Amino acid sequence: MKKILITGAAGFVGSHVSERIFNEYKKSKILLYDKITYAANLKYLSKILKKKNVYFIKSDLLNYKVLERSLKNVEMAINVAAESHVDNSFGNSLLFTKTNTLGTHSFLEACRKQNVKKIIHVSTDEVYGENLNKPFKEDQILNPTNPYAASKAAADMIVNSYNHSYKLNVTTVRANNIYGIRQFPEKLISKTIYSFLNKKKMTVHGKGNSIRFYLSVNDFCNGLIKIINKGKQNEIYNIAASKSYKVIDIIKLIAKHLNKDLKKNIRFIKDRPFNDKIYKINCKKLNKIGWRDRDLLEAQLPEICNWYKKNLNLFD
Ligand SMILES: NC(=O)c1ccc[n+]([C@@H]2O[C@H](COP(=O)([O-])OP(=O)(O)OC[C@H]3O[C@@H](n4cnc5c(N)ncnc54)[C@H](O)[C@@H]3O)[C@@H](O)[C@H]2O)c1
Description:
binds nicotinamide-adenine-dinucleotide; 12 helices; three-stranded mixed beta sheet; alpha/beta; single chain; 316 residues; Rossmann fold; seven-stranded parallel beta sheet
């Protein structure tokens, strides 16, 4: 591939995807596109930004002209950019629709105009909504229950329409919660580590009984590469972790690792307006093309905690 563009490249998932794409496509020109919101940091891209085949474009998905121009001669475009934090979406839901829905529409239209041959859109398991029964397959009817999930589900619908109406080649990936270094300390694992290291109390929604599946960012990138190489055109792929945890158990795990007294370092707060108890997704389609998750959170925690210890100042 001659030219690849990745949006949201300076964020948590985007920076890992960008490094991975750089390693897989050594001969390609790689364009990293990001608005640089509070969740992004160019330092996350320091390993690759100085390479002569890597270029950074600071711009918004909604800046259509810049986006379309950036996609000229691009052969593969990966849309990772998003407003990603559910809690923020309750307060500022319009921004979520602008970035996640309209931003994805802008991305697809610009890809269409520039005739991009291969497009990957990063969605989320939250589009399916809560699920207490059998894990949802990719053809499950969407039932998002918070403004973040709704803005992502709306984007997935626009992807569907572009696949049908314009025969655009867009593959969608819907993953469980992802963890790893560089995640802004607002999501459960990064926030717990950051709070404990900063001697702040970790707040827990309700009783911390919601259950979440956790996928390492490395496993996510492996899944993405598998889908790029072996996935079918215009399909949706779930990327699911094998192991789930109660929120409170994750906090206990991190407290134990950082030697913190749990009772003294947490504070229970009112639950979210609506908090899905669990998202269960079926990953057999991706398993069939050879992907399995390999990492265990327990084994990854020391490295992740060390990274936050060394990089606390990034979040001052
Ligand atoms: N983190 C998770 O647990 C998880 C799980 C499943 C799916 N996802 C999806 O993965 C993607 C990345 O999530 P993340 O956790 O890395 O989010 P993040 O908030 O860490 O990063 C998002 C990135 O997008 C950029 N961005 C935001 N608005 C933009 C805009 N309008 N134009 C251009 N760039 C913009 C930000 O600057 C940032 O670099 C999202 O699409 C999210 O829905 C995340």
